[in-house]
Amino acid sequence: MSTKRFLGYDTDETGKLVINRTQEPIVVRLYQEFMDGKITDYIKRIFEREGVKNWDGGAKWQSITLMSMLENEKYKGDALLQKSYTVDFLTKKRTQNKGEIQMFYVEDDHDAIISKRIWECVQLEIKRRKKYLEEHGTNSYSHRPESNPFASKIICGDCNKVFARKGWRSSTGVDRKVWQCSERYKVKGVMGCANRHVEEETLIKAYLMAWNALVENREDLWSSGRNSCRARTSWKVIGRRSL
């Protein structure tokens, strides 16, 4: 197994995977950041801003690379062999194995960086986010959360689609941010979903109320959830009420 582009592991003289202790914390942090609710594009920007070094010593990261790391079973100590194979021995060209040759799954092949429980939780979270996108008609689980934390998190209680942020200017020239169902005017000039818009200030107040409730009941919540994978929450908007 090649480790040339494989962050977190090297190979010993026998070819067995051994943990690279310098790179290990980066892998652990990636899994933790993802389970804390961040998307890989956001984690990419964090790593680049902090100058975190990738497999070749550079500080440039790709979202697709981070996602492949989150899905790689080798980080939990297992190994799926022959994911790809050589189709031309002269050019050394390789291609993804889609059933052309047999694959082999080896459990506990080497020391793990990520526990099996955390790895499985991450896979469940990946599946949950994919289902979330399909159910709510959006192509992004989050978008620039630093400046737009409510993106893809406000769900219409009438049609189950996401709300989008709009900039409105009143007749008096006052600018304000509102959130509106993405189905309301999906076809220009034709009103679709009849659900009303919500002021961004209202969402901020609702968020603060929910956060304070979590803080006040954190001991009970921690007790009931310590043995389960973390759950993600979104709000549904019914009329002008946030739930």
Verbal overview:
The structure is a single chain. The chain has 243 residues and is an alpha+beta fold. It has six helices and twelve strands. A three-stranded mixed β-sheet has the order 7-11-12. It has a three-stranded antiparallel β-sheet with strand order 8-9-10. α2 (40-50) crosses α3. The model has no long low-confidence stretch (mean pLDDT 85).
In short:
The chain is α+β, with helices and mostly antiparallel strands and 243 residues long. The protein is built from six helices and twelve strands.
What is the arithmetic mean of pLDDT?
85
Question: Largest beta sheet: what is the strand line-up?
Answer: 7-11-12
Over the alpha carbons, how many angstroms does the gyration radius reach? 23 Å
Would you list the SSEs in sequence order as H and E? EEHHHEEEEHEEEEHHEE
